[in-house]
Design a protein that fits this description.
single chain, 260 residues, six-stranded mixed β-sheet, Lipoprotein, alpha/beta
Length: 260
């Protein structure tokens, strides 16, 4: 019996056949990789709670003696909200009587629910711009009220938005020179020259007003102490007063990242 062997297959034909067999598998892998990449590109949702306090006192003006609160808001607020991945964000004014001030704007969700096709980063950027607009509205309202600077009251008002729970994070941007000056208490008239005298002043101040419930919060001042930028000795006393009050008594943490 004669057996006829087939002619040997040309190497080029064999490669083309193997390529056709491998192509569907390669397409499947490529499609899977594309789906994975699309899923991983979706940014995770923000969850951090933040607060913004704006000082509308006379020293907030854009003048030679003021610290220009509007310019500082424009320079820092959107960066702060982005840096800290803020979602729910509340606002409070500093006026002559901050806790009773009629000035208010509603809290904002800076990472709201949206359709699956929405550009989440663009939405966040838009909402941060809205937050700046609202903060400027609050500032202008505060500037129209009777002159005064109840910084402690502004901090107490924003504390109402602090999440409950000992481990809840809360980041607060405070655009103010921190020069407390209301009907009953003017910081510039207090004896802050020694640790003992500062302790006495703080004791009486908090006894009459109550301490803001900001334990564990991170406070980021902007414009802090600008009145004293050429007076080192008075600035040191001023800084010692607020450090003891905010960190020693209130148990908050003060961060100078945005101080300016």
């Amino acid at each position: 019996m004669t057996v006829h062997s087939s002619a040997p297959e040309h190497p080029g034909v064999r490669r083309r056949r193997n390529l056709r067999r491998a192509l569907p598998a390669a397409l499947v892998l490529a499609l899977a990789a594309t789906i994975t990449a699309c899923g991983s590109d979706e940014p995770s949702r923000y969850s951090r709670t933040c607060g913004v306090v704006v000082d509308g006192s006379g020293s907030a003006a854009a003048s030679r003696t003021g610290f220009d609160a509007e310019a500082k808001l424009r320079a820092t607020l959107q960066k702060f909200l982005s840096d800290h991945k803020c979602r729910k964000t509340s606002f409070a004014p500093i006026t002559k009587v901050s806790e009773a001030s009629k000035c208010q704007v509603s809290p904002l969700d800076l990472d709201p629910d949206s359709s699956k096709t929405a550009d989440r980063e663009r939405t966040r950027t838009t909402m941060r711009a809205v937050a700046l607009s609202n903060a400027l509205k609050l500032l202008r309202c505060a500037q129209r009220e009777e002159p005064g600077s109840d910084v402690l009251g502004g901090l107490s008002r924003i504390a109402l938005s602090k999440p409950s729970g000992d481990d809840a994070s809360y980041d607060v941007l405070v655009v103010s020179d921190f020069d407390q000056g209301d009907t009953d208490f003017r910081l510039g008239r207090q004896n802050l020259s020694t640790a003992a005298s500062r302790r006495t002043v703080i004791d009486g101040f908090l006894k009459s007003r109550g301490a803001p419930k900001l334990s564990g919060a991170d406070i980021y001042p902007v414009g802090y102490g600008m009145k004293y930028h050429t007076d080192t000795s008075h600035y040191e006393q001023f800084n010692a007063f607020w450090t003891e009050l905010l960190e020693g008594r209130v148990k908050a943490h003060v961060d100078t990242t945005y101080r300016r």
